[in-house]
Design brief:
332 residues; globular; alpha/beta; seven-stranded mixed β-sheet
């Protein structure tokens, strides 16, 4: 194993704001390990909307300076002792925790899983957070069954594509929404039954036509503020409105009595609370990897950006310029 440097490249924020607050550093200290941690040399880092939420201040950073990023894949180069869940130096792992935008990350072993041999490089980092989000949503937020009619907003986005693929494997009738013909085609290729181009089609009217006026039994909405009312409108009686993201901004407070019109359920889940225990993380990670290997699911990667160009990655993600997953290469 190569020697571990004292300093490293990484991206920090010292205050909240736009992309201008992202600072690419070349002299950040490599963290010392405590018991129960592993030191991972990151090969690829996932970019997610949650990173932009911490950057803008929508979510509160635990301290400043703060290293952004919630997931990465790489190799364990050192262990801190204690309970390591069978992980050891040299293992190739993927993990979800704080501090991913760096060459090296000190990670709780409880939040890392070994990558199966059948998973090629980049795929685990491209799949873990968004794939587990999608998997836990269709298993726990609303348990989707074969034949169900469901709506997925931003169906060509990172989590949206995973939802479409998993719903297709279940046998659901999936209606997606997208803003361009390219994104419509991508969602259809991933397995959506119908995709509505909301730039010129009326989503509410089209959903009503497709479902015979009944609406959908579940809406998976990662967009947030701009689609929340529409999502409630297209929901069927006894349906589930699953709001799991804030891409267009946080959903404002609303009157809970609105749910009684359809006996609707409203959830605001996070993947971290569905995979909070070691048992849950292993269960869902193993299931996700099995699905990828057995079904040949493609973890669509939009682009691998140099870590030094993290501002461009955030700008592209927030500007709806992307389809699939954005990754960072910490070596560049």
């Amino acid at each position: 194993m190569a020697s571990i440097p004292h300093t490293q490249k990484g991206v920090i924020i010292e205050k909240t704001g736009g992309i201008e607050v992202l600072q690419h550093k070349t002299d950040l200290p490599v963290a010392a390990l405590v018991e129960g941690q592993i030191l991972v040399k990151n090969d690829y880092i996932g970019v997610n909307f949650i990173d932009t939420y911490f950057r803008t201040g929508l979510y509160t950073a635990p301290q400043f300076p703060y290293i952004l990023g919630r997931e990465a894949e790489g190799t364990i180069v050192k262990t801190g002792g204690g309970e390591l869940y069978g992980l050891k130096e040299g293992d190739r792992v993927v993990w979800m925790a704080d501090g991913a935008y760096a060459e090296y990350s000190a990670v709780p072993a409880a939040k890392a899983v070994k990558i199966p041999e059948g998973i090629p490089p980049k795929v685990a980092a491209a799949a873990l957070l968004q794939g587990l989000t999608a998997l836990t949503l269709v298993r726990e937020a609303h348990h989707v069954e074969k034949g169900d009619w469901v709506l997925v907003h931003a169906a060509a986005g990172g989590t949206g594509l995973w939802l479409v693929k998993l719903l297709h494997s279940i046998g659901a009738n999936t209606i997606g929404t997208a803003s361009t013909q390219e994104k419509v085609d991508l969602a259809l290729k991933a397995g959506a039954t119908h995709v509505i181009n909301y730039s010129h089609e009326d989503v509410k009217q089209k959903v009503s036509e497709l479902t015979g006026g009944k609406g959908v039994i579940a809406v998976f909405d990662g967009v947030g503020k701009s689609t929340f009312d529409l999502s409630l409108d297209v929901l069927a009686r006894k349906g589930s409105m699953v709001s799991f993201g804030n891409a267009s901004g946080a959903v404002p407070p609303f009157n809970i009595l609105r749910l009684s019109a359809k006996n609707a359920r409203l959830l605001r889940p996070t993947v971290l609370n569905y995979t909070n225990t070691r048992e849950e993380l292993e269960k869902y990670s193993n299931e996700l990897f099995d699905i990828i290997i057995k079904n040949g699911l493609d973890a669509r990667i939009h682009e691998v950006y140099p870590l030094s160009e993290v501002a461009r990655a955030h700008e592209d993600l927030e500007g709806r310029k992307t389809t699939g997953k954005l990754l960072l290469d910490p070596s560049k």
